[in-house]
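#lab-general

N.A. 3:47 PM
ok so I finally got the sequence cleaned up, no stray characters, all 174 residues accounted for. can someone with queue access submit it? mine expired

B.Y. 3:52 PM
send it over

N.A. 3:53 PM
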Amino acid sequence: MSFTIRPLDRATDRRGVEAIDTTFETGAVLDLVTTDRRIELVERTLDAPISKRYSIAEVFAHWATWDRGWVADDDGVRGFATVELEPWHARLVVWFLYIAPAWRRRGVGRALLAEVEAYGREAGATHVWLETSNVNVPGITAYGRLGYTLCGADRLYYGAYMPGETAIYLAKEL
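B.Y. 4:20 PM
back already:
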């Protein structure tokens, strides 16, 4: 399967982006273990796998301030990434990165992040930063393979929105 990475067009790509199924399954979660000076993620196997789906509607929500995006296209949107540059500390924030289930583990995420990172370098960012949930073990594993490392966590970040989940922050120097 081949695909092309191209700029995301909010109007013409919206339907394709919103059609992506964000569901993933995991048989483990990462528990946050902290001391006064240490943060550690400890993998815990679940008794039974769980499925989780993120709301794709958030991509175009009024509060989503991303200003650049790319899609993996093969006559249809198979994945996409959106970012926002925070110039005050030279950080490129990944707002959304989703890959259609049939296209996962085929290089789509790697290609999209390569485009993100190239843009970050061109824009003067020193690093790429992202947030995900401790339940998203498949995503965290993929990010790790691509050079992203733990840079923080927040047990309170999601509140009632995603009870019991912890925000995990990952970064990669450019």
